[in-house]
Automatic annotation (TrEMBL):
<protein>
    <submittedName>
        <fullName>Pyridoxamine 5'-phosphate oxidase family protein</fullName>
    </submittedName>
</protein>
<dbReference type="GO" id="GO:0070967">
    <property type="term" value="F:coenzyme F420 binding"/>
</dbReference>
<dbReference type="Pfam" id="PF01243">
    <property type="entry name" value="PNPOx_N"/>
</dbReference>
<dbReference type="GO" id="GO:0016627">
    <property type="term" value="F:oxidoreductase activity, acting on the CH-CH group of donors"/>
</dbReference>
<dbReference type="InterPro" id="IPR011576">
    <property type="entry name" value="Pyridox_Oxase_N"/>
</dbReference>
<dbReference type="GO" id="GO:0005829">
    <property type="term" value="C:cytosol"/>
</dbReference>
<dbReference type="InterPro" id="IPR052019">
    <property type="entry name" value="F420H2_bilvrd_red/Heme_oxyg"/>
</dbReference>
<feature type="domain" description="Pyridoxamine 5'-phosphate oxidase N-terminal">
    <location>
        <begin position="22"/>
        <end position="150"/>
    </location>
</feature>
<keyword id="KW-0560">Oxidoreductase</keyword>
<dbReference type="InterPro" id="IPR012349">
    <property type="entry name" value="Split_barrel_FMN-bd"/>
</dbReference>
């Protein structure tokens, strides 16, 4: 069942309408770059860009086990992923809030590896073994973020702010 959209009139132009959830999912599916925000052990934020794949109603990303974001997620799984454009009056920005959960089932990882390569090309080819993606000499942990809340920001007339809540 699709989440209910709540258009916030305080931040939306008159006549603005909330996009249908399937249209938002299409934006998540097509977006090539996301910014991930995690929390360091001392409470400071950490933000970095990365590719992500929308599959099975969740965003998926990968990271090396020693990278800052992986170490942050060990202590605090709360995460925000954002995507959109850096243009003021064009496009649509999305903010996905949720908890990152490790994906380690090799069959599921193979399906995600295929999705990565279809979306990003052969540079992002991963082998799967031992619950990880493998690429060259390194390995990567894979995480799933099922949305808890998604915010959408329509830019340009009509401007809009929409919230979708899950679960």
């Amino acid at each position: 069942m699709d989440p209910q959209a709540e258009l916030d009139p305080r931040y939306s132009s008159e006549g603005a309408a909330a996009p249908a959830w399937p249209d938002v999912q299409a934006l998540l599916l097509e977006a090539e770059l996301f910014w991930i925000s995690t929390v360091r052990p001392d409470g400071r934020p950490h933000v970095t860009p990365l590719p992500a794949v929308w599959a099975d109603d969740a965003l998926h990303f990968c990271t090396g086990p020693e990278e800052r974001k992986a170490r942050n997620l060990e202590r605090n799984p709360n995460v925000v992923l954002t995507t959109g454009t850096n243009i003021w009056d064009k496009g649509y920005d999305l903010v996905v809030e949720g908890e990152a959960a490790r994906v380690s089932d090799d069959d599921r990882l193979r399906a995600l590896a295929d999705a990565w390569e279809r979306k990003y090309g052969s540079f992002w080819h991963f082998e799967v073994r031992d619950g990880c993606f493998h690429h060259g000499a390194g390995n990567a942990l894979v995480f799933e973020v099922a949305p808890r809340t998604v915010f959408g920001f329509g830019k340009g007339e009509p401007f809009s702010q929409t919230r979708w809540r899950f679960g």
